[in-house]
């Protein structure tokens, strides 16, 4: 049944009216009026404490947002996802990344197949391979153990693996070196393998489709590099494995079917880090810790599936995101992990959030008349504070920020961790409460500086606090964002699981490619800008050739 268009839903209308009364209220006043606010507007699940009290909401706002979730049939759609229904309508696919972390022995039937059993069969094969590599039992073509692992993939086949490797590096086996090659710019590959000996190197070619131009270009260069160093095509079997849903293309590439780890079309690329796409993660941290990570994902899945909406972390985060985007009109969200190991989390979340919710039509194909997915970006704290935080504090654009902190460091050293953590709390405080003109004057500020030093505050933050970064915690954290994305996409009535927008650029690049390299310089039939750029490029390439010839 088609839902009522979003802006005609009763709860949406009530939120619009409500915004006109609450919208400009200041967090300073909301906190003064309600001394319990800081503990009341908080929720906890799977080891993550969410303080959302510094959002510009009241109990009434939250109640109306929950009404909106109910009117948008969030619980029904969530259950449809968990039951394997084809909620990715434009691709007619189930969306079942939650099955990737269901415990062994449970089951979920999709089209008569128990997908959980299939998931664990692949996990077992991955574990067997990981144990061989990690123990040194897997020997390369010349009889030497593997010490270098190179994951070749892009998008979801890169960002999850590299983010998880960095995040869990503390738990990784340190005699193994990991590299992640994504960009088709040859520099990425060349620099990754520059100091490597092919005899000790394993390539994981990660691609759901096994047709992505960047990954295939890098994979062919990797194969040529290896065969050149080891002098025999037969070496490929000992140095290449693939992770893909496309067995036919993998075997056409020349990888032994015994060395292929599969997954399924119901796993979206940006939701695949806990599938076989996480093979590099398992090689780094080992099967036991990989399973701990899956348990963390599952704990958050279960919370999302069963907790009442008003206590449900992903639901709350998703609804607050809707409030900030559609009522406060915030175009972007900053994500600032105060943990160096999470340095790639913002990049990972960019794909997760923006490829999912960067959509302009509803599930029925009708143009939306409201804003959808905001721009996500960020940097680890405290580094960001010394570059772009100025704009967040005093710029004219309000940027809601997620601040992610941990009570314990994995590398305790003197006072570092308390210095780091004090900044998490201080930033949330400064953004919420700012500094009034009276405060500024009371500090004896020279008159010409007063206006410059006033900080309006009233800038929303979520603070996510956990004990320590573990594989389990990482799983829960990622699942939290996945389900927040789901919540937002459901309210917006969009397909969060397709990505047609990235196709056009790929098609056009394929048309232009032969025009760049062709000696016959075919007539260009693009727009005048593209034609001029291609012609200039060709001319510059020609000049480069002249230099080389000298
Ligand atoms: O171009 C976008 C995209 O399709 C992403 O959704 C995906 O994660 C990435 O490309 C890589 O795709 P594949 O794993 O099939 O190589």
Task: Describe the model.
The protein has about 550 residues and is α/β, with parallel strands linked by helices. About 50% of the residues lie in helices and about 10% in strands. The strands form 3 sheets. Strands 1-2-13-12-10-11 form a 6-stranded mixed sheet, with helices on both faces. Helix 11 links the parallel strand 8 (about 240-245) and strand 9 (about 260). The longest helix has 28 residues, at about 280-305. The protein is globular, with a radius of gyration of 25 Å. The protein binds 6-O-phosphono-beta-D-fructofuranose.
Question: How is the quaternary structure best described?
Answer: single chain
How many DSSP E strands? 13
> Which hetero ligands occur in this complex?
6-O-phosphono-beta-D-fructofuranose
Shape: globular
What is the CA-based Rg, rounded? 25 Å
Helix/strand/pairing class, anyone? alpha/beta
Q: Describe the biggest sheet?
A: 6 strands, mixed
Low-confidence region ranges: none
- As laid out across the biggest beta sheet, the strand order is 1-2-13-12-10-11
Distance between the amino and carboxyl termini: 71 Å
Count of discrete alpha- or pi-helical segments spanning 4 or more residues = 21
Q: State which percent range the strand residues make up.
A: 5-15%
């Amino acid at each position: 049944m088609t839902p009522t268009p979003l802006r005609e839903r009763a709860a949406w209308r009530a939120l619009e009216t409500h915004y006109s009364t609450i919208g400009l209220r200041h967090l300073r006043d909301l906190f003064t009026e309600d001394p319990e606010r800081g503990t009341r507007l908080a929720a906890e699940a799977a080891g993550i404490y969410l303080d959302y009290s510094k959002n510009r909401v009241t109990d009434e706002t939250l109640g109306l947002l929950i009404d909106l979730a109910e009117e948008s049939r969030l619980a029904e759609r969530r259950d449809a996802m968990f039951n394997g229904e084809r909620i990715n309508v434009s691709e007619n696919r189930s969306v079942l990344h939650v099955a990737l972390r269901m415990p062994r022995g449970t089951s979920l039937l999709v089209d008569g197949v128990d997908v959980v059993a299939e998931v664990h069969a692949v996990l077992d094969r991955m574990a067997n391979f990981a144990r061989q590599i990690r123990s040194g039992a897997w020997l390369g073509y010349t009889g030497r153990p593997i010490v270098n692992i190179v994951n070749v993939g892009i998008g979801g086949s890169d960002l999850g693996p590299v983010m998880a490797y960095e995040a869990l590096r503390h738990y990784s086996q340190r005699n193994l070196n990991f590299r992640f090659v994504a960009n088709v710019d040859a520099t990425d590959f060349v620099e990754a393998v520059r100091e490597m000996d092919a005899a000790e190197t394993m390539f994981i070619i990660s691609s759901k489709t096994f047709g992505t131009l960047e990954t295939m270009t890098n994979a062919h260069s990797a194969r040529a590099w290896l065969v050149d160093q080891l002098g025999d095509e037969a070496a490929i079997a000992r140095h290449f494995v693939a992770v893909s849903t496309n067995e036919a293309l993998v075997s056409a590439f020349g990888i032994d079917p015994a060395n292929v780890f599969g997954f399924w079309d119901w796993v979206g690329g940006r939701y695949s880090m806990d599938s076989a796409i996480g093979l590099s993660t398992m090689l780094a941290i080992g099967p036991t810790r990989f399973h701990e990570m899956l348990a963390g994902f599952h704990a958050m899945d279960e919370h999302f599936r069963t907790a009442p909406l008003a206590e449900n972390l992903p639901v709350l985060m998703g609804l607050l995101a809707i409030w900030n985007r559609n009522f406060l009109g915030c175009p972007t969200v900053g994500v600032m992990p105060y943990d160096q190991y999470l340095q790639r989390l913002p990049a990972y979340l960019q794909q997760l959030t923006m490829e999912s919710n960067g959509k302009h039509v509803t599930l029925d194909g009708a143009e939306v008349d409201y804003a959808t997915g905001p721009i996500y970006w960020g940097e680890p704290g405290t580094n960001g504070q010394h570059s772009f935080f100025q704009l967040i504090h005093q710029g004219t654009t309000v940027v809601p920020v997620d601040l992610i902190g941990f009570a314990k460091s994995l590398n305790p050293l003197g006072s570092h961790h308390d210095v780091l953590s004090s900044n998490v709390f201080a930033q949330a405080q400064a953004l919420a409460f700012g500094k009034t003109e009276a405060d500024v004057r009371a500090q004896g500020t020279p008159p010409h500086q007063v206006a410059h030093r006033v900080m309006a505050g009233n800038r929303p933050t979520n603070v996510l606090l956990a004990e320590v970064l573990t594989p389990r915690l990482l799983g829960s954290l990622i699942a939290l964002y996945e389900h927040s994305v789901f919540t937002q996409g459901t309210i917006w009535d969009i397909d969060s699981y397709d990505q047609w927008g990235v196709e056009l650029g790929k098609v056009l690049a394929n048309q232009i490619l032969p025009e760049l390299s062709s000696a016959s310089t075919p007539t260009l039939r693009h727009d005048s800008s593209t034609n001029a750029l291609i012609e200039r490029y060709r001319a510059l390439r020609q000049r480069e050739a002249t230099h080389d010839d000298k």
